[in-house]
Amino acid sequence: MPELPEVETIANGVNERTRGQTVVSVWTSGKPQTFKTPPEEIGEVLMGARIERVHRVGKTIVCDVVRPDGQGAQFLVHLGMTGRLLVSTAETPVPPHTHLVLGLSGGKEVRFVDARRFGRLSIHRDTASSEGYGGPGREPLAISLEDFIALFRERKTPIKAALLNQTLLHGVGNIYADESLFRAGIRPTRKAGRLTRAELGRLREALIVVLRHAIELGGSSVSDYVDADGVRGFFQLEHTVYGRAGEDCKTCGTALKKTVVGGRTTVFCPVCQR
User: Fold this and answer.
1) Residues near 241 by Cβ (< 8 Å), separated by ≥ 6?
2) What is d(CA 244, CA 136) in angstroms, rounded to the nearest whole number?
3) What sign does the CA torsion over 115, 116, 118, 123 have?
4) Distance between alpha carbon 243 and the CA centroid of its chain, in Å?
5) pLDDT tens by residue, 121-173
6) Which of 47, 180, 194, 225 is 20 to 30 A away from residue 187, measured at CA?
């Protein structure tokens, strides 16, 4: 599943190519699994709307639009396991498993493609009491040290499982939890509530560094992920532990070990991570 850096990369790419354009046509496949909001409502909201901004909240791509009547709304795209959000020319053949096509005033199309149909499309309407879609948890790239420490205080779950809990920090998945814990020198099986303030400070800093570097490299392409142009990312070439069980640690040379934490395969160095 695409994580924060991959979703950020896609959102930025779509924003650069669509911001300020108007939606002139809407086509949906009607496949029920894909739509949290009925396809008819998505078409009604987006038809004629101007795209103000496309950005990321957690693992969700958020498209802020203004409708012809001046009302604001947000179109939410969650990529699921295999979803792709592509910006293509109208002449480019439409890929199989395409579930949404937005025709734009500039002549290009935004296409949502999802073979396994775990992705979800929905509408979030702005109201006087709403500040827009906020996501399920805290933003890892913006959270303060004190708030970060407070998230894990007295928690009995392993720190790896806590990092994957989207109600605590949204956007962090298996890849970047493993990579950040290695960089911080923390074993993923340790109880979150028993980590010291200094250790949590290292973890927060490691998480920010790893996520930002992954964004710079366009994310990790370890499965189906591509950006808005269909281009793979490069951060997988720099993974220190994820997907490398049994290989030598790049720091100390010890064979990396594999275990399961919170139902997810987890790789760590038994020497570098304590």
Assistant:
1) 178, 179, 182, 249, 256, 267, 268, 269
2) 30
3) positive
4) 19
5) 999 986 444 568 999 999 999 999 999 999 999 999 999 999 999 999 999 99
6) 225
Identify which of 102, 121, 115, 113 has the alpha carbon closest to the alpha carbon of residue 35. 121
- Domain CATH for 34: 3.20.190.10
Same domain for 76 and 174? Answer: no
Domain that residue 262 falls in: 145-268
Residues 15 and 57 in one domain: yes
Shared-domain flag, residues 236 and 185: yes
Residue 50 lies in a domain: yes
- Do 79 and 181 lie in one domain? The reply is no
Do 114 and 217 belong to one domain?
no
* d(C-alpha 160, C-alpha 86), whole Å: 32
Question: Using an 8 Å Cβ cutoff, are 74 and 55 in contact?
Answer: no
- Do the domain assignments include residue 137? no
Token pair listed for 179:
């990579």
Q: Could you tell me how far CA 221 lies from the centroid of its own chain?
A: 13
Q: Is 57 left (phi over 0), alpha (psi -120 to 50) or beta?
A: beta
What positions carry a catalytic annotation?
2-3, 59, 264
DSSP 70-136: S-EEEEEEE-TTT-EEEEEETTSPPPTTEEEEEEETTSEEEEEE-SS---EEEEEE--TT------S
Global pTM reads: 0.91
Closest CA to 4 of 159, 136, 148, 201: 136
> What does the DSSP assignment read for 171-218?
S--HHHHHHHHHHHT--TTSBGGGS-HHHHHHHHHHHHHHHHHHHHTT
Please write the tens of the pLDDT for every residue from 31-82: 888 999 999 999 999 999 999 999 999 999 999 999 999 999 999 999 998 8
CA atoms in the 13 A half-sphere facing the CB of 107 = 3
**Main-chain phi, psi angles of 36, to 5 degrees:** -75, -35
